[in-house]
Hints:
This protein is α/β, with parallel strands linked by helices. The chain has a single domain (16-243), classed as Alpha-Beta Barrel (TIM Barrel), CATH 3.20.20.70. The protein has nine helices and eleven strands. The chain has helices at residues 27-35, 58-71, 94-107, 121-133, 151-163, 178-195, 210-214, 216-219, 239-249, and strands at 4-6, 9-11, 17-22, 44-48, 77-80, 112-116, 137-144, 168-173, 200-204, 223-227, 237-238. The strands form two sheets. Strands 9-8-7-6-5-4-3-10-11 form a nine-stranded parallel beta sheet. A two-stranded antiparallel ribbon has the order 1-2. β1 and β2 (9-11) form a beta hairpin. α1 packs parallel to α2. It is globular. The chain starts with a strand and ends with a helix. Belongs to the type-I 3-dehydroquinase family. Pfam families: DHquinase_I.
Amino acid sequence: MHTVKIKNTVLGAGSPKICVPLVAKDSDGLNTALAGLQGLAFDVVEFRADFLERAADGGYVMERLREVRAALPDTPLLFTFRRAEEGGECPVPPEVYFSLVQAAIRSGLTDIIDIELFAGEAEVKETVALAKANGVAALLCNHDFDNTPPKEEIVGRLKTMQDWGADICKIAVMPQSAADVLVLLDATQTMFNQYARQPLVTMAMGKLGVVSRLAGETFGSAMTFGSAGTASAPGQIGANDLRFILNVLAGK
Length: 252
């Protein structure tokens, strides 16, 4: 399996890397969130642009992205605009979604771009190609906030992401039982051992799924999400606690 190197961080080698989301409504909130990163253990920062109060305003979003990049010049940065259909904060039509994502790619301000698998095949493939042309790692993803699909479906979605050119393949599901968490973990290790050419990022959300956020090194997930105060998805735990647990599990 290939690894993906973003600045000095390598995804797909060693312990899962910790990604911390930046969640804010405006510039002042963003500055507060950035200050809150001091003393936290993380490897990647995710800018969740859909939380902004003017999230559909491309110029405003790019200004905020510029602020984040200026504050974190050496940190791997993931730009995410999560659509409402997959748990995001700001409903926008597809053309606005792709305009924002493609503007972030062209800006030269982000290292990784989040692209939703089910946002439209032609547009997704076009955006992946744009990312590659601009030296931005494409993270293709899917989020199911209601259920956990069958193992074969989870593996199939991850394989599709890979086939469409993803540098990183991500899926998040909502378990309704402990058995659902096992389905996600089993799908992850099957994909990792049999099909993966690129790093995987998988998780079961909510309290039931917390163990999946910790077990990546065992099952094949290369990155996990820890909060810096405000969680961007159910089940996230604090970044420092996450680092401690990952180190214990790795025998460090």
